[in-house]
Specification:
The complex is a heterodimer of chains A (about 120) and B (about 200). Chain A has about 120 residues and is mostly helical. Chain A has five helices and two strands; from the N terminus they run αββαααα. Chain A folds into two domains: about 90 residues, no CATH class; about 30 residues. Chain A has a two-stranded antiparallel ribbon with strand order 1-2. Classes of the chains: A mainly alpha (about 120), B mainly alpha (about 200). At the A-B interface, helix 1, strand 1, strand 2, helix 2 and helix 3 of A face helix 1, helix 2 and helix 6 of B.
Chain lengths: ~120, ~200
């Protein structure tokens, strides 16, 4: 490992007391993170296998949809939380995502039970 | 006159983020709405008919799609490992991980092409029915995003890596930003796979 470059990188990420929560980590912390990424990978692979397995159980339509979406949501949480490091991110990004999730939910809620028909009257 | 773009390495005091990072999150927010509109269309089509065809009954290839899911998950790990390697000051390792990501992306596109060819061979086109219309629209748009990611990764493995010699921290940030985009592409597939193929 090039220690000089690592120190240079760490130094570049701090400025005037402002500090990027995901950039300024010691080499040991970064190595610890990489082990976490591998654990998340195995969890995602297992959840994919479970999703496919459940689809062959021939459950009722609403049950199958609920289970598949719950598993997909857990996978999304793992990807967003650990790979996109959203578990330790700046408040501004949470604010941007909060607004996005609200409008995304509105988009999905609209066609459910034909709410658009109501708006069209 | 030399004009330096501000805050491409150091966090901006008021946001606490370097500009590209805030920029990519705003871009991803717009991407959520783009795919959201299509997911909304899928719900509208699906809830508007008494019987919606099952992906398996329509001839979608579940083993190939499962393989593609694993390929994308592996690529998400390799891109985040590339970023970690660069943070440790190891460009060589970072480039190897980026190359693995590019290979996974190519693998995804090859598998998707095999799937598409099989559909066309069986005379299943976007105009065949609503199921195939939304299937081709969603997977096609997702495929275009994969293609976009491949171009970006190829650039950073090749000519774009020159930046490392002069501005390693900025180059590392660039990889973080394209990694965030790539994870989003993975996230979209995580939902597309069960919705189109398994339900």
């Amino acid at each position: 490992m090039d220690t000089t470059t690592t120190e240079h990188l760490a130094d570049e990420h701090t400025h005037g007391g402002v500090h990027d929560p995901n950039a300024h980590h010691s080499p040991e912390e970064i190595r610890k993170e990489t082990r976490k990424y591998l654990v998340v990978f195995f969890a995602l692979a297992c959840l994919t296998a479970i999703t496919v397995g459940v689809s062959y159980l021939h459950l009722e339509s609403h049950e199958a949809i609920a289970i598949a979406l719950i598993i997909a949501s857990i996978k999304a949480f793992l990807v967003a939380g650990y790979f996109m490091h959203l578990l330790s991110e700046r408040k501004l990004i949470y604010a941007v995502l909060g607004i996005t999730v609200f409008f995304f939910a509105m988009l999905l809620w609209g066609p459910w039970n034909h709410h658009y028909d109501y708006f069209g009257r | 006159m030399h004009l330096e773009i501000p805050y491409n390495v150091r966090p901006r005091p008021d946001t606490g983020l370097y500009n590209a990072k805030l920029g990519i999150w705003l871009f991803l927010a717009s991407e959520v709405m783009l795919f959201g509109a299509l997911f909304s269309s899928l719900i509208l089509l699906r809830s508007g008919v008494p019987h919606w065809p099952h992906g398996r009954d329509e001839g979608l290839n579940i083993p190939l799609a499962t393989l593609n899911t694993l390929v994308l998950i592996i690529s998400s790990v390799t891109v985040v490992m590339a970023w970690a390697s660069l943070r440790l000051g190891d460009l060589k390792k970072g480039r190897i991980y980026l190359s693995c990501t590019l290979l996974c992306a190519m693998g995804f596109m090859v598998i998707k092409t095999i799937e598409y060819m099989d559909k066309f061979h069986h005379h299943h086109f976007p105009a065949t029915n609503n199921f195939y219309a939304i299937y081709f629209t969603l997977t096609g748009l997702h495929g275009l995003h994969v293609l976009g990611g491949m171009i970006v990764f190829a650039y950073f493995i090749g000519p774009g890596a020159k930046m490392w010699a002069t501005e390693p921290a900025r180059f590392t940030n660039r990889i973080e930003v394209c990694g965030l985009y790539w994870h989003f592409v993975d996230l979209v597939w995580i939902f597309l796979f069960p919705i189109l193929y398994l339900l």
